């Protein structure tokens, strides 16, 4: 048996947009497949890797204080959500042949020690759950799905007839939020960077109107006018699920109706800006006051005490055909940097998955 395995090493803190040269692929990592395991250790092989925009925030040498996740160290593989198969086990909970969903390093084969108080961080895939693809556990049934479910329903609290705007609508989270809004009887306006000829997939998901933010030249007033026109016969919007920040957030805020709700999930527009502190302060706070808006940010892990609820409901909607799952797939560890770049260029639909 081979005595080496593959890994993707994080080599350089990016300045601006991620570059392929910020990583180094190797297939020469020494690995002993016959080694004995200590108590609570398992040997796994990665099957799928999740790449998500939030990873960019952990690739900063001088990360902002009080960031919710630690900065990645250069010279090592970084980690993210993965699907992995247990090849060998010395663990009381996880056995050989089990398929797990959890955070693993970007190394094809690895030894992982899972202390008993960490077991809750790894989900064992039920082999009897049906014909749901394993990659869905990194998307609709994983972190993006839970982000969509709790971040939209708990914070936006949609009502039938509401007008909902979703930014990054073609992404892993946005494409799910739009469909959840439709399930709840809302009119849904999706904002994307996809040109008109590439928008059919979003139309097939049920989005009522699709706007390309690139058509508005970073002008929040022009985009606000387009949002209000799309909301007709209503005069504005009731809910905004924000994945991007920037001028799109400004435009949506300007279009909000009284008592509107804004769920702040991501800030893709400035993830690749080094000095993110240079644009401080809510410029439209007078609208928060005069229109009595509710604006709330969240981290999905805050809802993990209700994880079973979210997974059960999202699984039900997938099985019923109410939720369609969009995926963009890339093959091989060596191509992960290309996939990361696509997260910020809009050159993909749905959840970005690396197949191994």
From TrEMBL:
Keywords: Oxidoreductase. InterPro entries: ADH-like_C (IPR013149), ADH_N_2 (IPR041694), GroES-like_sf (IPR011032), MDR_fam (IPR045010), NAD(P)-bd_dom_sf (IPR036291). Pfam families: ADH_N_2, ADH_zinc_N. It comes from the Eukaryota. CDD domains: PGDH. Residues 172-311 form the Alcohol dehydrogenase-like C-terminal domain. GO terms for molecular function: oxidoreductase activity, acting on the CH-CH group of donors, NAD or NADP as acceptor. Residues 8-114 form the Oxidoreductase N-terminal domain. PANTHER family: PROSTAGLANDIN REDUCTASE, PROSTAGLANDIN REDUCTASE 1. This is Predicted protein.
